[in-house]
Fold:
Amino acid sequence: MKKLLVLGLAMILFIACQNQPQNYFNASPELETFKAGVAAYEAQDWDTWKSHYADTAKIFHNSNKGNSPDETMAGMKDMLSTLSSYAFSKENAVSEMVVDKNNKTWVNYWNTWRGKLKANGKEISIPVHITSEFVDGKIVQEYAYYNLSEYVDAMQDLQAYNNLPADEKAITDAVNKVVDGWNTHNIANLKALSVPNLTRASNGVVDIKSIDEYESFMSVFVTAFPDFKVHVSTVDIADNKVYINWTVTGTHNGDFMGNAATGKKIKVPGFSVWTLNNEGQFVSEEAFFDNQAIYSQLGISPPKV
Structure:
């Protein structure tokens, strides 16, 4: 009898659980509406974007003040006017719909937004979280959280660049082209901006004596690290010298100094001094960095000298 009683209680609990209303969804009309709004934002189809919001909707983007769809749209247009391209990641998007204890319907969205400044091609990456309440198929309130510091810093750097004298602007442009050449794995920019007998010293030792040798040097790194990137933090110019603080990153997916791919990542800071001649061409680079850090991060031994 006791076993029957326990079995009966278990069945009652099971049936009760089965009768609970569903409160989590990974597919719904609201989710499709939200995604359509994201697509409209990316296409700057503002009429379609606005159509997903109720006329009285309040939108809170990094603020305690709720704006109307028109006010929010104006702010977004202002920011987007500074960009040559922008979009949300197609790989990292996560979305869900939940019905809370008060029977309110919410769509949550997490993704990474990426944009490129129109003025200098600076790339910006910002994680974003948006949560939107739906009533009768329309968004009635929305909260969005994202850190704009990277965008603000980029705009401040652009303002500082615009205030530079013409000769320093030209040097800054040249540095940006060299960095872009590294990041696109193309020596053409540096070849066009340097003398044929360009030299490079690593930690005080001259190991490159021509642009062709520099190209071979670049090839070693971009082959070993197909996603190799140079990230510049500061650039200072004094007469014919350019002082650059940088960090390089990459994933070891190719042969590096005779070492097979490990799949490990590197992140190594460094400092370079570039010298220009009177014609504005690069004649030398002196680079300083912890060479051992590369091998330590990869878990391999440096080549024997």
